[in-house]
Amino acid sequence: MAGGDPTFGDLSAALIGKMLEERGIKRVPEEVVVSPDFSYNYSEKPDDSASRLAKALKFTPKTLSVEEAPAGAPTFVLKSYPLRDILLYMNAHSSNFVAERLGALVGGPEGVREFVVRELHIPSEQIQLSTASGLEVNRLTPRGLVAVIRALDAEAGRQGMKLEDIMAVASDDRGTLRRRLVGSPLEGAVIGKTGTLVHDDGGMSSLGGIVYTQSAGKVCFVMLNQGSSIAESKQMTDQLLVEIILSKDQPAPILMPDKPRHMLERSELIITEQ
Questions:
Q1: How do residues 2-59 score in pLDDT, each as one tens digit?
Q2: What is the pTM assigned to this prediction?
Q3: Cα–Cα distances in Å, from 68 out to 2, 46, 50, 71, 256?
Q4: What is the reported pLDDT for 258?
Q5: What pLDDT was estimated at residue 153?
Q6: From CA 87, how far away is CA 95, in angstroms rounded?
Q7: Of 258, 237, 245, 255, residue with least CA distance to 195
Q8: Confidence label for 197 from pLDDT (cuts 50, 70 and 90)
Q9: Span 177-189, average pLDDT
């Protein structure tokens, strides 16, 4: 099994099992081999992922191994979810694992840092990244983060999307924003991304994104809190954001489904023979 899809898991294995069954393959007598970048259900270890895959497929191979992908053509291909769907899941659930895997594809934390400095013209001394996910020691000013959000919004537009296609809507989507701003005037009008560290830097609880307003359109914001309890920081952030917006404008909630968006649905996965 070769592939670096960070969202590969039980649903993907079920499709593969069905494909093998249709081919009359019920067991693997010798070994199961996976590539070094293969992961199953967000496991960091490819050998552990190989074991989980074999168990899911009800295989009992003699050996499990991790090797580079073979040079030959694959028998069939399971396509990953579209990148936009993976990004939405990653941002909505603050998945550090997915962020690290996607970051590795663009050069890791240093590659991300170089891109931000080069493309967004943020002074190099104002950005420090230890990881692509935001864990450990990472530094960026609120002004720099606003520039990142604006650039992301602009790029989404160039790709024929809106920011809410890749980021969660507060109070309307599953994930870390599910219960934020519920019952407030900003309910359904905020698209954002949380950032929470329980132990590092004395505790961090941050929120950044955009607010849709009636007069000013999209208002970009970033709030970084440090040192207070996570619950207090979230409450203070939400209250302050509501007060700031209402002091100048009125929110313009976007049209969303009646139920929170499900992410990474099984029906979106496609497997094809080669």
A1: 889 999 999 999 999 998 888 888 777 688 889 999 999 999 999 999 999 999 998 8
A2: 0.91
A3: 8, 11, 14, 9, 44
A4: 77
A5: 97
A6: 10
A7: 237
A8: confident
A9: 95
Dump the DSSP string for 134-188: S-SSEEE-HHHHHHHHHHHHHHHHHTT--GGGTSEETTTSSSTTTTTTTTSTTTT
Distances (CA, A) of 245 to 183, 186, 200, 248: 15, 9, 30, 6
Q: Within 10 Å of residue 163's Cβ, how many Cβ atoms? A: 22
The residue ranges of every structural domain in the chain are 10-79, 83-248
Element (H, E) at 194: strand 190-197
Q: Which residue is listed with tokens 């996607």?
A: 102
Task: Name, in order, each residue with C-beta under 8 angstroms of 76's C-beta and a sequence gap of 6 or more.
Answer: 19, 271, 272, 273, 274
Looking at the structure, give the CATH architecture of the domain made up of residues 83-248: 3-Layer(aba) Sandwich (3.40)
What distance in Å separates the CA atoms of residue 104 and residue 24, rounded to the nearest whole number?
37
